[in-house]
């Protein structure tokens, strides 16, 4: 029995299924992972850019970093792997590959919402009006860090690269 057959056999007998997904799931959709060898941010540690201190020290760099991530996520479309995971979240499909399954959960650190987009598309195709929801931190909303309320309705930047901001 090869690995694929062993996986199918284990899945078919599973009662509680959990899928753990990371950046690799969305890489085929054109969203670069932080650990791959190429890419614009290979010389920077993404975790060090995701802090208030980093923003205070270099707001331009942090804005550019998040704009790049946001743009990539907004341009991306779910790939075949997202579609397969989405099908597993629908009981009718799940029962066809795991007849004894009682539960299915997707746990992901991805903020691109492609898994939710794939599920929403599948449910719409199935003529369902179910709304997929996410409690995960998202890259889409832009928040003002100032005390002023004048920036409360900032639009989501789209398109070309963010220009460096002047030093404060």
Would you kindly provide a brief summary of this structure?
This protein has 168 residues and is mostly helical.
Task: Summarize the amount of helix as a percent range.
Answer: 40-55%
Along the chain, the helix and strand elements come as HEHHHHHHEH
Q: Mind describing the biggest β-sheet?
A: 2 strands, parallel
The N- and C-terminal alpha carbons lie at a distance of 63 Å
What is the arithmetic mean of pLDDT? Answer: 80
Strand line-up of the largest beta sheet: 1-2
List keywords for this structure.
168 residues; 8 helices; mainly alpha
Structure description:
Helix content is 42%, strand content 7%. It is built from eight helices and two strands; from the N terminus they run αβααααααβα. It has helices at residues 3-13, 23-27, 46-49, 52-57, 59-75, 80-88, 91-97, 114-125, and strands at residues 16-21, 103-108. It has a two-stranded parallel sheet with strand order 1-2. Helix 6 crosses helix 8. The longest helix is centred in the middle third of the chain and has 17 residues, at 59-75. The model is unreliable at 129-138 (pLDDT under 50).
Write the topology of this structure.
Elements lengths: L2 H11 L2 E6 L1 H5 L18 H4 L2 H6 L1 H17 L4 H9 L2 H7 L5 E6 L5 H12 L43
Parallel strand pairs: 1-2
Helix pairs in contact: 6-8
